[in-house]
Amino acid sequence: MLAYLFRRLFAAAVMLVVIIMVVFGIFFLVPKWAGVDIASSFVGKQADPAAVEAVRQKLGLSDPIYSQVWEFFKGIFAGRTYAGGGDVTHCAAPCFGYSFRSEQAIWPVLTDRFPVTLALALGAAVLWLVLGMAAGVLSALKRGSFWDRGAMVVALAGVSLPVYFTGMASLAVFAFGLDWLDARYVPLTDSFTGWFGGLILPWITLAFLYAAMYARITRATMLEILGEDYIRTARAKGLREQTVIGKHAMRSTMTPILTMLGMDLGALIGGAILTETTFNLPGLGQAVLNAIKNQDLPVILGVTLITSLAVLIANLVVDVLYAVIDPRVRLA
Amino acid sequence: MSDKADDKAVNIPAQSEGTVITKGDAAPGETLLKVTGLQKHFPIKKGLLQRQVGAVRAVDGLDFEVKSGETLGVVGESGCGKSTMGRLITRLLEPTAGTVEFEGTDITHLGVGGMRPLRRDMQMIFQDPYSSLNPRHTIGTIVSAPFRLQGVEPEGGVKKEVQRLLSVVGLSPEHYNRYPHEFSGGQRQRIGIARALALSPKLVVADEPVSALDVSIQAQVVNLLDDLQRELGLTYVIIAHDLSVVRHVSDRIAVMYLGKIVELADREQLYKSPMHPYTKALLSAVPIPDPARRGAKSERILLKGDVPSPISPPAGCRFHTRCWKATEICRTTEPPLAELRPGQQVACHHPENFADQAPQDVVLLSDAKEAAELVSEEALAASAETSAAVAAEVESGGPDTEASKDGAAKTAPGAAEDGAAKTAPEAAEGTAEEK
Amino acid sequence: MTDLSKSGAAVGEPTGTSPAPTAFLEVRDLKVHFPTDDGLVKSVDGLTFQLEKGKTLGIVGESGSGKSVTSLGIMGLHTAGQYGKRKAQISGEIWLDGTELLSADPEEVRKLRGRQMAMIFQDPLSALHPYYTIGQQIVEAYRIHHPVDKKTARRRAVEMLDRVGIPQPDKRVDSYPHEFSGGMRQRAMIAMSLVNNPELLIADEPTTALDVTVQAQILDLIRDLQKEFGSAVIVITHDLGVVAELADDLLVMYGGRCIERGPAEKVFYEPRHPYTWGLLGSMPRLDRDQQERLIPVKGSPPSLINIPSGCAFNPRCPYADVPKDNVTRTVRPELTEIGSKHWAACHMTQEQRERIWTEEIAPKL
């Protein structure tokens, strides 16, 4: 088990380096090939040539790509000083880049906004896992019943309705129509109930999409597992039906769900951007959307890196959970 | 449909034992397939760099020949490499070492293109009639596939030829446009056979052709294979785990254990007087459908434990960890596959039913003593007796008399205290009488 | 259904059913039908037999003959945990030690499962849960029927593993099924099914997934354990060799019905049904001199949705025209006693069958 953990950790570290290089390549190398001046995109199209030249010097954009990557890496651990065009900008470690557009370091922006996205994502994940699996198991056990069909119709709706639609609809009904909730984001440090109240609709909106998918997967997996020989063995031992389902069948059903969870946590950021926009949450998604609008490259780079890191960690956790559930995985 | 075919099959006059054997002689000395030193190791790779940390030695040095018109049966337990062997000789797998010669041509390293013309002469029948037929294709498409692949236009057209093949295997020509799911297991296996026969191959390799079928259907397919061989002069290599089926269909039989052939002999000899202890154990393990012999433990040799891993097979004789006759030499020296009796090759230092090959080595390994506890005393005694008797025979006839005789007399006590006491004098008597 | 006390033979007569039997296990006119979109699948269609403690009954038949469905029916596994599906229709009576199982409270039957009746399945790899250790699975089976702590149950598990011949049982108890070889897994499975000393053991194709040398080990083990525990055993298999090794009595099934039943010697040496002849003739045998040709049964097993009218075997029977008036195709033959404890269901007269067997079939086997 320990060896397995080390292997996974090592693989994750390797993966992280690869991601940074790939992201770097996409942001710095590809524009170069395409003949786009990167420096200008760091300052904005209408910037004067002097400012562009200053950025070019500050970032060492004329240097070979590997030295740029190296500088970036070094910045993460040691901080970085940008000098050029007559002025000096310091970016303290961990330096994930500097936005010359908004004249601020990226890292504080990320640390500011990351918790919001994390809260949104984790809260939604818990919600969709619980709802999705519960609905899936119930549907499987009552296959063909009214409940099963109803749940699957709702699930189909959940899969097919876009987040902004369900988001808008829930806002219209619960926040503005019924006035049950205040649809403003309040930081957790200010007030728990305010924070919770502000996030509950985003959670439900985001979770609805995934819960639907998870319900369908859970139902299908559960039905398959219930046909397994070892479930018959469990019954032949004289186990109570709740043990057969709750222990033997559930543990097996977890495996494909975990696999899916690992992948979905990566794809989640897309859903989160839409949700954050719909609910006006100050998260990474919103930051990235603004950055794209303003062509603020360093922010996009920083957000990409931080989310890759989050996905990597999430997958590491999933891998470990996987091994906990299925002993055969530990050997592989 | 199939009913008709069965009637037809039953009505073919029974052939006598003699003709079955002469069938092999029809093309005397003509070797169709020759395998030398055949090996297949599947590498085990580990880590990020996928470096090789070991190998599954699935097939580890096989030498045998298949003569035109005969049936070679290959038996062994799961993991012995028999299926890998089948795929190697039909070149569905690339051997790690050794050569495969088909009609005198070395086909060991022929590429896909080089093999194509040979695919006509060499066909395979697979175990599972459910997964080996594409469910989306009609029977006509499936059986005519070989014609398309080889670009052959049979006389009278593909459809007519396919319908003829269907009737040969006992299906109705009207089945041409049906799909596999409309057929039962036995009928599907017939379809697989029809496909294999399409290009009138010389060699048919059948991997567990009947093991997925019900008993009554098994018999239909076994009879069909028999009839086809007689009518078309086919040569078979039949790989199976069922010793009764293999005995029924084969002229010669190879017994495999952990990637090696431990015994290769004519059918009658192998079943009447097996020489390798593993063969003997294997034969004795087959449950006999006769309640009177229930629990006839005296005849049964139970092997202890499981087959060792083919990743690190035991040194020396691979069977020594489970053999009740194993001595030091078995642990250190690998016995060669040698023809001890005409038509019977065996790889063993201390064969059953024959003179001991390493008579100087008499001290049993501790493993062997444990293994012997599972073998009834009657079996041990009987074995010692026959060995001694053969030794005596050899002594009276052959020149290296002393060694053999001493060997038999000495090993007997090692094998079974009780039996030895009885047998040694008997052996001596036998010798005296002979002289 | 009336309350049934568990005091054995002296049980009062439940309303609507015949008197409680004296045999340890008695199955009467068992029918298991499954409704499907294509029609009613009559997997078992009227099966009757008895079994005493310490005896072994072999149920033989080809795939789809209803032999496995019978065993699951006795265990009550057609009704337990069948969610939302169209439920199996089960009728008849199953008396186990004086209790009628089909009319009993499902919770009572659950308590009997694993304790009084246990089962060994065909493929031990798929029949054991891959995520739990062998020990955990045996402990679970023990504790559901015995209120003991985990330690005691674990000791019991180790003891059972030792009994079925698993080396170093105190270590192997913590292994997972995938760490065992096929033979070891089946031993573990047997240990698990015997952990509560069941009085009835059902082995469904216990050795089909195993190699022949391992099969010999397992058959030996089952025989020894039966002697030791004195349980009643039902062995379900398609392999007549396995049955001959273990069974005292034999029941041959075809198309969901019993077509011949009797002491093993009778059924092997004086079979009185053409299908039994067919099974015997289909088998290549190691104990006989080489047969020239096998004598297969023509055609394929019947569809259980559309069982042939009359005798289910009539389309495949070479002697279907021996009885007069086409009776084989119109009237279903009843199981009739043709000798001491020997039953067969065939329209041919006893004399006809005896003659065919001795003159036509036996010499060719």
From TrEMBL, chain A:
Protein's cellular compartments: Cell membrane
TM region positions: 9-30, 118-141, 153-175, 195-215, 257-279, 299-325
Domain ABC transmembrane type-1: 114-322
CDD domains membership: TM_PBP2
Domain of life of the source: Bacteria
One GO cellular component term noted in the UniProt record for this chain: plasma membrane
Short name of any one Pfam family annotated for the protein: BPD_transp_1_N
Keyword presence, Membrane: yes
Annotated keywords: Cell membrane, Membrane, Transmembrane, Transmembrane helix, Transport
InterPro entries referenced in this protein's UniProt entry, alphabetically: BPD_transp_1_N, MetI-like, MetI-like_sf
Mode of membrane association: Multi-pass membrane protein
Gene Ontology biological process terms from the UniProt entry: transmembrane transport
Family matches, as Gene3D superfamilies: MetI-like
Family statement: Belongs to the binding-protein-dependent transport system permease family.
PANTHER family, A to Z: INNER MEMBRANE ABC TRANSPORTER (PTHR30465), OLIGOPEPTIDE TRANSPORT SYSTEM PERMEASE PROTEIN APPB (PTHR30465:SF0)
Protein name: ABC transporter permease
TrEMBL record, chain B:
GO molecular function: ATP binding
Keyword terms of this UniProt record: ATP-binding, Nucleotide-binding, Transport
Coiled-coil ranges per UniProt: none
UniProt name for this protein: Peptide ABC transporter ATP-binding protein
Organism lineage: Bacteria, Bacillati, Actinomycetota, Actinomycetes, Kitasatosporales
Family annotation (CDD domains): ABC_NikE_OppD_transporters
InterPro entries: AAA+_ATPase, ABC_transp_ATP-bind, ABC_transporter-like_ATP-bd, ABC_transporter-like_CS, Oligopep_ABC_C, P-loop_NTPase
Keyword ATP-binding appears in the UniProt entry: yes
Pfam families, A to Z: ABC_tran, oligo_HPY
Species, as recorded: Streptomyces daghestanicus
Automatic annotation (TrEMBL), chain C:
Any one Gene Ontology cellular component term annotated for this protein: plasma membrane
Membrane topology of this protein: Peripheral membrane protein
Intracellular or extracellular location(s): Cell membrane
Keywords: ATP-binding, Cell membrane, Membrane, Nucleotide-binding, Transport
One GO molecular-function entry: ATP binding
Keyword DNA-binding applies: no
Annotated ranges, domain ABC transporter: 27-280
Chief location of this protein within or outside the cell: membrane
Pfam family name, one: oligo_HPY
Keyword Ligase part of the UniProt annotation: no
Annotated region described as Disordered, given as residue ranges: 1-22
GO biological process terms, semicolon-separated: peptide transport
Protein family according to the UniProt entry: Belongs to the ABC transporter superfamily.
NCBIfam families according to UniProt: oligo_HPY (TIGR01727)
Annotated protein name in UniProt: Dipeptide/oligopeptide/nickel ABC transporter ATP-binding protein
Source organism of this protein record: Streptomyces griseoviridis
